Target: Putative transposase
Amino acid sequence: KENRELRRANTILRQASAYFAQAELDRRP
Model:
């Protein structure tokens, strides 16, 4: 049914988590 929307939300979540993980690594001294 709403498989496309679920996949899109999953992609956005994955990109967001990857972005925040990278930001965490960059913030380290």
User: Anything to note?
Assistant: The chain has a mean pLDDT of 94. Helices lie at 3-27. The chain has one domain: 1-29.
